[in-house]
What we know:
Strand order of the largest sheet: 19-18-17-16-15-22-21-20
Oligomer: single chain
Largest sheet: 8 strands, parallel
Structural class: alpha/beta
Amino acid sequence: MVEKSTRLIVVILVAALLFSFIGPATTSKPAQAQDSVEARVITDNLNVRSNPGIGFPVRGQYMFNMMVRVEAREDVEGNGGLWVYTRAVDGSLEGWVFSEYLDFPPTFIYTSLPIVEVETVPPAGSGDTSGVAGFSLPAVTNANVNFRSGPGTQYAILDGLTEGVRGTATGRNGSSTWIQVTINGQQGWLYHTLVDVDGDVTALPVTEDTTSPASPGQGSTGSVNTPAPAYSAANLGVFSYGAHVRSFNHIGLMQATGMTWIKMQVRYHPGQDPASVAWMIQNAHANGMRILLGVVGEPRDVANGGENYFQQYAGFVGGVAALGADAIEVWNEPNLDREWPNGQINPATYTRLLALSYNAIKANNPATIVISGAPAPTGAEGLFGRAAVWNDNNFLAGMAGAGAARYMDCLGAHYNEGIVSPSWTSGDPRGGYYTRYFWGMVNTYRSIFPGTPICFTELGYLSPEGYGQLPGAFGWAQDTSVAEHAAWLAEAIRLARSSGSVRLVIIWNLDFTGTYGADPMGGYAIIRPDGSCPACNLLSR
């Protein structure tokens, strides 16, 4: 925000509305506005000030996702917004904030708000806290950028951010070339040319990081491996990615490529104790990673157990949430009889399981993200019949009709059959069916569940290079090279990050190297049989 050097004198053309002020050095506060609107805070730790300007005292801070009532405005707009007077809906705080960090209803127009005369030049001794601990400024990324653990490219990548991600600048290094920023509860560093800070950067306190950079392969040591902060559904506004792993042997490699998530699958059996998976959660958090657990049972247990089995399953995932799981995927590919009983596949029945599980998870840990079980991408129901398989789009439409949107934070998706660049929307030699294309999947899924974020809990490309002939059912990928496998993965991550719909991608897979039979999982692995990882080299750029 560009500060003004003169007092704003305006006439309020609102009948019967009076504002009064007590001199330039005092707090200015409008009377109750006639026209107001509710808005949502879209950044962390938004400073609420006594007057419109970064030099005025901070009364307190609004947190991410808080609802506030906007009651008045100043008269001059700049830097993409203007200062507005707000009150927290819960009554906890009121004051001035910059409008760019609020999400308004689509029909809202600024001119509907009353204008107030207010002092915008802080007098000497007014309480400007710049340059000291606790002082902060709104910030927003202006390009795709790596969010790092320290002020330098030698530090590990905590996340990959797109243009337009908002946060709070809380510090800088001595030369102001790196800015310390908090985004959705996570603190990290951004290069100064890739982030716009609303105010004087040099007014931020110097908070030079003193920890040692973590190098690939450090594993459980180094500054980046402190436990990850709580990660709730609200944080799905920031894109992140990771990989499905068999072991915890490659944490340093994952962090060096910008991955912040680990996925592991749990095969649930009736009576199983949630504590049986505690080691997965503990290992992930001890290494500074978030963990997604995909929990799937056996089709025979679904067939034999009915509602009682659903209740047991929900109790189990609720217990897993209580242990600190960052995200739980409720089942896996429930549209196939490989994972659900033949003859009983039904989106409404699955939605019942999802609803029970959602309520149990949130009752035990509201911060745990609930992801619906990703269906297998397929158009085979015409060939095999719905007793054995539902097309994923039809299954999702049935879920939507059953009210599933109320019982998920993110819509699960799988994309694992691509043999062309993810940027292509045609040209696959097998035809134009939407599951062949990355954008076909994204556009189809968001059309069925508009407004629900998409989480790819499995996204991968298959290459036989280094292994040999693929089994017949996977012969469609026989000509995919490792170079294409790597390039397409990196491009898919980039497209997902900028899509506006995808919030999480789990790469299928990291290290299932050597498993290459009827189900050639090793061909999907980004760590190849010779130990190399071409995809890692591209992902880390």
